[in-house]
Design goal:
Keywords: Aminoacyl-tRNA synthetase, ATP-binding, Cytoplasm, Ligase, Nucleotide-binding, Protein biosynthesis. This is Tryptophan--tRNA ligase. It is found in: Cytoplasm. Its EC number is 6.1.1.2. It catalyses: tRNA(Trp) + L-tryptophan + ATP = L-tryptophyl-tRNA(Trp) + AMP + diphosphate + H(+). It is a single chain. With about 525 residues, this protein is an alpha/beta fold. It folds into 3 domains: about 230 residues, Rossmann fold; about 130 residues, no CATH class; about 100 residues, Tyrosyl-Transfer RNA Synthetase (Orthogonal Bundle). The protein is built from 22 helices and 13 strands. It has a 7-stranded mixed sheet with strand order 3-4-13-8-5-6-7, sandwiched between helices. Strand 5, helix 5 and strand 6 form a beta-alpha-beta unit. Helix 6 packs antiparallel against helix 10, helix 7 crosses helix 22 and helix 8 crosses helix 10. The longest helix is centred in the last third of the chain and has 32 residues. The two termini are about 25 Å apart.
Length: about 525
């Protein structure tokens, strides 16, 4: 969970237009592979919606207070369960933002996206956390502690220079945060090697420390909720989504109770529950002998319905029929279920006492008939917290597009011309932009006639992602002038190069000002580990 720390592994998607992109990127591509440490490929961002359940950020944008320009322009293109965070920010309630940085090189303009996302959330009222993933850098990348220290300081300076408020936020390194390490140990009891093998492709050659760094990252993601559960967002590139999904799963596994809808005393899968719920809605209890809908009645109705009309497979139907037949004359009634995941005896008893109205108590669950699911979830969390549990909420995430390399294709740390470091001399930054590939035509005459291809231009991408700042009108004007043939590449690159030079100069001045602030922070800038 380390933001945009890899250049060579970042595959570019479709560059941005002056308007938010809603189609997810390059049409027609189908190559998607997400690997937090390997070669992540995202040729079609729409595939992330289909394959991994990432949602389009446009769906929640209207509920986000003062959305960041990266959201407005579609650079932040997707999210996972971001609405609770947006609602909390809108209503002035507690929320948190956290992202980490693996100090394997100099901070670059890709990192600035993540820095900005953290800082914007902090400015909207969220508790902000920035961490140095030094354990991951050592275990997964083989970085020495001396190298890690050098780069860690540089990341922190840029984060502070861009506006992170250390008095209102939290900065730490994994290796010296004992609370994170203790939480990682607890979370490790809920995960296993087979799971890591399936998610990350780990095998017999994977070091134990690398596996340990994964549970440390899970602890990082949940760390903002150690004192109290709150909506928490993790801003990352899509290559980090495997970490987010695992963290969400572990947050649920550590909960004392699972809250769900149920219709009888036995457990049903989601598909089975949908079948029973449909029968409950459409069958009339008055049609049966005792005016009450029972499990056998639902079984009879399902057997009389053609399989093609049920939208389930034969195995699912057979399973639910078996459960219904075994339950016999038990009434089918909707209820809210508290399933015991890992509750203490005291917590389970406290839950039973706290559930008001009609209820049924079983060995491993409690069914409440007068409680809505949302209220039940709130009650379950309260009981858990009162009895020593964490009550974690599943963390949310937002995803930004990878930046295109200045030479076209993907950015590469082995090709300095393809990317701009935040430590580059301003003149070098100017020269890199001036030498960058563009989406222009072969000749100025053809450009004026057909217009430029801003959607294929790394230089326009610099405007949309960084150089236009919060000025949407400027970003759109550059785009419109390009595709309309009014803007030629030479003038466009000159303007972009000047803006980049100014940005780097200003940023590096602010880094110098932040150096004293960094020294005054209660933060370990040098690792106590063997160098």
């Amino acid at each position: 969970m380390t933001g945009d720390d890899r250049l060579e592994e970042s595959e570019s998607g479709e560059p941005m237009t002056g308007e938010p992109v809603t189609d997810g990127g390059t049409a027609g591509a189908d190559d998607v592979a997400l690997d937090p440490w390997g070669s992540s490929t995202v040729s079609d961002y729409r595939k992330l919606f289909e394959q991994f359940g990432i949602e389009e950020v446009d769906e929640v944008l209207e509920d986000v207070p003062n959305p960041h320009y990266l959201m407005r322009r579609g650079v932040i293109f997707g999210h996972r369960d971001y609405r609770p965070v947006a609602d909390a920010l809108s209503e002035g309630e507690d929320a948190a933002v956290l992202s980490g940085f693996m100090p394997t090189g100099d901070p670059h303009i890709g990192h600035k996206l993540v820095f900005d996302e953290i800082i914007w959330h902090q400015q909207q009222g969220a508790d902000a956390y920035g961490l140095i993933a030094d354990l991951e850098a050592n275990s997964a990348r083989g970085m020495s502690w001396a190298e890690i220290d050098e780069h860690a300081r540089s990341y922190l300076l840029s984060l502070l220079a861009l506006g992170f408020d250390p008095e209102a936020g939290t900065l730490y390194r994994q290796s010296t945060n004992r609370e994170v390490q203790d939480l990682a140990f607890d979370l490790g009891a809920e995960a296993n090697f087979s799971e890591f093998q399936a998610i990350y492709g780990f095998d017999g050659e994977t070091s134990v420390s690398h596996m340990q760094s994964v549970v440390t990252q899970m602890a990082d993601i949940l760390y903002p909720q150690l004192e109290e559960p709150k909506p928490t967002v993790i801003p990352v590139g899509p290559d980090q989504d495997p970490h987010v999904r695992l963290a969400r799963d572990l947050a649920e596994r550590t909960r004392y109770f699972k809250v769900s809808e149920a219709y009888a005393s036995f457990e049903l899968t989601d598909d089975e529950r949908d079948l029973v719920a449909d029968c409950y809605e459409r069958l009339e209890p008055a049609e049966f002998d005792d005016d009450q809908l029972r499990c056998v009645h639902v079984a009879d109705a399902l057997e009389e319905t053609p399989l093609s009309d049920l939208e389930v497979d034969a195995a699912t139907l057979e399973s639910v029929l078996t459960k219904l037949r075994e339950a016999g004359m038990e009434p089918v009634r909707p209820r809210t279920r508290f399933s015991d995941r890992r509750a203490t005896d005291e917590a389970f008893e406290a839950l039973i006492d706290a559930v008001e109205g009609e209820k049924r108590v079983y060995e491993s669950h409690v069914d409440a008939f007068d409680l809505e699911v949302a209220d039940a979830e709130k009650l379950a969390r309260e009981i858990e917290l009162e009895n020593g549990g964490h009550g974690f909420r599943p963390p949310s995430s937002i995803y930004h597009r990878f930046m295109t390399g200045l030479t076209g294709g993907k950015m590469s740390s082995s090709d300095p011309a393809s990317h701009i470091s935040l430590l580059d001399d301003p003149e070098d930054g100017y020269d890199k932009v001036k030498s960058a590939t563009t989406g222009g035509r072969e000749t100025a005459e053809e450009q004026r006639e057909k217009g430029g291809r801003a959607d294929e231009c790394p230089v326009y991408e610099l405007y949309a992602y960084l150089l236009a700042g919060d000025d949407d009108e400027f970003a759109k004007r550059v785009y419109d002038e390009c595709v309309g043939g009014e803007r030629l590449c030479g003038d466009c690159k000159e303007q972009a190069a000047q803006l980049m030079k100014e940005f780097l100069g200003d940023h590096q001045e602010k880094r110098e000002e932040a150096a004293e602030l960094l020294e005054d922070l209660d933060l370990d800038l040098e690792s106590p580990r063997r160098r």
